[in-house]
User: What shape does this take?
Amino acid sequence: MRLTARGIVPALAGALGGTLVVALGAPSAGAQGPGPMLLDSTAVQPPIVIRIVPENLRPVGDIAAPDDRTVGDPFWATVRTTGPAGAYLLPQSLIDAYRPHAELAVLDSDRRDGQLRLRLALFRPGDVVLPTVNARVALNGGDTILVPVTSDTVRVASVLAPGDTLLADIKPLWRPGGVPAWVWALAAAALAIAIAAWAWRRRRHPAPAAGGGAALDPYDTARRALEAFSEDPPTSGRRTEAAAEIGDTLRSYLADGWGVPARERTTLELLPSLPPRGAAERPSLAALLSSADLAKFARVAPEPGVVPRLAERGLTTLDRLEALRLGGEEATLPAVREAAS
Assistant: This one.
């Protein structure tokens, strides 16, 4: 039976002043009943409030300081929740709600002191407020409601040097203070030449075909390559190379499987060029390729444990892209592959 707003208030009587709990899994079997309801803020007392608050911590690993945070820099934010006792925030619903928004990416999540934390990256400069989305909250009586999630302002600096109008995927190699303009121009030209030489070499020496000229399946090739990164590399240098290779693997799959010139284009150029049927995976690709670009071009070493998680997310995105490419359901993809082999 669907519980109305009038029935929820008595059900939560005596729960005033409680704390909203973050649930790692699904609620009890009773929560599988009616679908989510949008309620007025006065229907539940005390009202449920969910807000994203960026953490202003000193830089650690690839986490930038608040004053030095630029486009694509990862940072942690705390999901602060208040509400009645017996209400449970479903974390995956919040992560999924941000997925369609291409201006941000959820890179990771964890819990600290009982609070959900999200590792985010923003791709728009200025004073940015995350888009308001609806997250699912399970109530004590078994119903699930949708609660708006707001955020504090996050300041994101541009990756462009002062007076520079050329868009770029990565930050400058040095801070702009006191560096002559000609040094910036020379560094940009050298980087452009290096990227062009790398792209030319990839086209000139493609991966050899198996079986005496038989073409390898792009999906199978990419999957085997990503599965090889299930173990965390022991050194920062190896982690940097592994993260860069994960990005190269996804670009090769897009080039060979989808016919997109992913090897030659920057991430910002690549994402809009995906065919319409692959557009749903742009946010996840943006997050993966941005992390790989930081390792490949800026030589930012991932923290210990990040490479296996990056490879696992790459496998998930790869499977969804292949299902979209074949025009079938993602859930049937492994069975189809096994039967075909």
Summary: The radius of gyration is 23 Å.
